[in-house]
Amino acid sequence: MTTPVQDLSFFDDIKAYVGFTDADAAALAGFEPLVAPHYERIADHFYECILAHPKAHAAIRGGEAQVNRLKRTLVDWMRTGLLGPHDERYYHRRTRIGRVHVQIDLPQQYMLTAMDVFRIDLRQVVEETYAGEAEGRRRLNDAVDRLLDMELAIMLQTYKEDSEDRLRRKERLATIGQLAAGIGHDLRNPLGVIESSLYLLRRRDHDEKVSRHLEKISAQVKICGEIITDLMEMARNRPPKRSRVDVGALIADVVASVPVPPDVTVLQVVDECVEIDADPGLLRQALANLVSNAALALESSGGRIRVSGEALEREVVLTVADDGPGFDPATLSQAFEPLVTGREQGVGLGLALVQSIARRHGGSAEAENRMDGPGAVIRIRLPRTEADEAGAEEEV
Amino acid sequence: VSRKRAVLVVDDNVALAENIGEILCEEGFDAQVANSGTEALDRLTSGTFDLVITDMRMPGMDGLEVLRAIKRQWPVLPVVVVTAFSREQRIHDALADGAVDVLPKPVDLDALLAVVGRVG
């Protein structure tokens, strides 16, 4: 017998393998109200086991507050798992959990062991609820097993994909780093000669054409210098030196220093008194890269750049949006990969550096195309203080 | 008439050393260049200087060694070190060994002139 498995999505494939049917989904949905009173107890037990185990505990760095948030997430996970619908949307939401596990460096074996803690608790509820009904008990236990096995399969699969991505990226960055440090040093010297020659020439009177071209050369040399600075910064990958940063002042400073074409307007929108514990130099470099990218996207068309800073409960979100052509859908998913660029002229370091700076602060960077028209949006999410860092990760 | 202040520019990059020398000459200094640490020490032995500007990274004697050799022989001669090393330890070493100032590379020429004007 042949089965056309090639056309099945990953989720449909594992569903087919464990034999998860609509009847299982219906049994679980019917069971949900009976489990609901036990959610809190099961979540408590689940985290008790994790916290009792040093190597698993290590992945949770945010203390009791984080555990309480995680418990709420787990209750939600149980509810939505039992209720379904177990469709592709469900699958995509579930994949994020595997990713979070990679982010927090949870060793893979604890996904299996933790799932068993959960399975045993759930079975116990089944036993209690269906004490006298062997058939109902068996049906429900089967459905629970199938569901949890699917959850595990999804978790492990996304975990694997994400770890591989991480490794590839790390290797790539290490190679770039070695190259960058060498090339950067070597290019600094000739650039220094050009700069000092320009310095000598610019002090003399020239006709308009010579002056104009000297200014052009000077501006381009400055850009070269910035590319080298980015390269070296990538290579150094230094940890942030944090101090209190006034986000409004930082944005104003960056906007004032990055040249934009005359038909481009830059709008600054900042909540009142947004402050963050961050490395001002690194943050400035990240934002300058984003504004400079947006300005390049609008070079031929003109348009608007919106730079905003917004304070949420535990994080600050810096957003740079433009109404240029936006990301090519083909490059969007790789927007932060080093050496990937959507521009004809461009090394593809800017966004990689932005992401690296965000990550070094315990934050993240996101890229998307605008919903309300053409244009690109880049968001940097940063924990407000170092103490918020651990808490920011489990928001799935 | 007081003599021009004499500055020795030490950099293994010949063109860069020449340019910095030329800028200093335009600013009214008597600037000379040396393209290695040993050449710098030879020139210092045969002439009189008021200030040395040396690059950090050079083949043979590096800037720190030049600085230390100068401090042994001419303890009061001011030395400015220019470095692309952003590592704080190197900057700290240079200052501890008696550099009057450490300037980052790429050199901001206005900043360099300001330092030279102050100590030269």
The beta-strand count of chain A equals 7
Mean of pLDDT of chain A: 85
Spatial order of strands in the largest sheet of chain A? 2-4-5-7-6
* Share of residues in strands of chain B: 15-25%
Give the chain pair forming the largest contact, with residue counts.
Answer: A-B, 15 and 15 residues
- C-alpha geometry of chain A: elongated
Structural class of chain A: alpha+beta
Strand content of chain A: 5-15%
Count of DSSP H/I helices of chain A: 13
Order of helix and strand elements from N to C terminus of chain B: EHEHEHEHEH
- Helical stretch count of chain B? 5
- Main sheet summary of chain B: 5 strands, parallel
- Structural class call of chain B reads alpha/beta
Cα-based radius of gyration of chain B, to the nearest Å: 13 Å
General description of the model:
The complex is a heterodimer of chains A (396) and B (120). With 396 residues, chain A is of the alpha+beta class. Helices cover 61% and strands 12% of the residues of chain A. Chain A contains 13 helices and 7 strands. Chain A has helices at 10-18, 22-35, 39-52, 54-57, 63-83, 88-103, 109-129, 134-202, 208-236, 247-257, 280-297, 329-332, 350-360; strands spanning 243-246, 264-270, 275-278, 303-311, 315-322, 364-369, 376-383. In chain A, strand 4 (303-311) and strand 5 form a beta hairpin. The longest helix of chain A has 69 residues, at 134-202. Chain A is elongated and about 100 Å long. Chain A starts with 9 loop residues before the first helix and ends in a 13-residue tail after the last strand. With 120 residues, chain B is an alpha/beta fold. Chain B is built from 5 helices and 5 strands; from the N terminus they run E-H-E-H-E-H-E-H-E-H. Chain B has helices at 14-26, 37-46, 63-73, 88-96, 109-119; strands at residues 6-10, 30-34, 51-55, 79-83, 101-104. Chain B has a 5-stranded parallel beta sheet, with helices on both faces. Chain B is globular. The A-B interface holds A 185, 188-189, 191-193, 195-197, 199-200, 203, 225, 232, 236 and B 13, 15-16, 19-20, 22-23, 26, 57, 84, 86, 105-107, 109.
